[in-house]
Amino acid sequence: MIFNGGLSCEFQHRQSRGSGHDGVAFARAPRSGWTPRGHMTATAAIVDIKDYSMRQLLRKRRRLRRELIARLSKGEDAVLIAPALLCFLHVRRDLGNAMQRVRAVSATLFNLGMFSTEQALSLFRFKPGDAGHVAALLRIDDETFPGRHRVSSLERLCIVLRRLSSPARWVDVEAVFGRCSSALCSIFYETIEALAERWGDALCSWRGDLMNERAATYARCVQDKGGAMDNCVGFIDGTGIFVSRPGRGQQRSDFSGQKKTHMIKFQSIVTPDGLFLHLAGPMEGRRHDVTLYRDAGTDAMLEAGLLVQGVRSCVFGDNPYLLRTWV
Asked: pTM of the predicted model, to two decimals?
């Protein structure tokens, strides 16, 4: 619901183009937002963020300016022009605020050294001194993206880490990196694709060297946190990524009866320190976790991989997984 304190700019502008059904987005708006008894009126509306983009605001300002000039040249009464004038002032105000934000974002330069250790761990999951070392180990290169965006390897890594650390829209991250949403989106996906091409095999293959080195440490960490077993070194579970309703006959295969939506599924084995020990997928969203476990050959992989120096380790899974000495 949109409460009109005075005149509704959006509806007053659409009023000259006709009205729709009562109570929907394009209903004719009242002349004033206040009733004779002093109560505020409410008009239902569908608000689209695209209507308030910089490009749309510039177009609306030009259109309203031409309309005001034409009506003033005809000598129309000021009372009749007031709604269009008020709408023009509102558009000019929104455009000014948008331009001010663009200038503020453009004046920002990203510097990881300006973040405290606590802030860096919260936003990027790494200490400021460790992020550069991680970027070098991942062999992320400095690159120039379309639109002449020159980005260092450290900034590319921080953009990826900020996006993955917690849910955030690109517009919320603009002030952190001093770049527009479209540039941040392009940098993120290009970096993810480069990392997946170079290091994708490390996620989808069994990390036997890592398990041989850290099995005892992982088991001790789980037990210290209250685990009932002294040989648990990781956790296995299936997870789904929600997707839009697919086409080409894939709606039924990607629909999850449990979540009541379309998704693609993965099976992940994660260690206590948050590292992926193995990742399998993607598969159709309708598949059960046990089906994914069987089709990925996880049973034989765990049986052989969790026998470390003669000691049988195991991973913990929820009820769908069949009880084994290694699960």
From this structure: 0.64
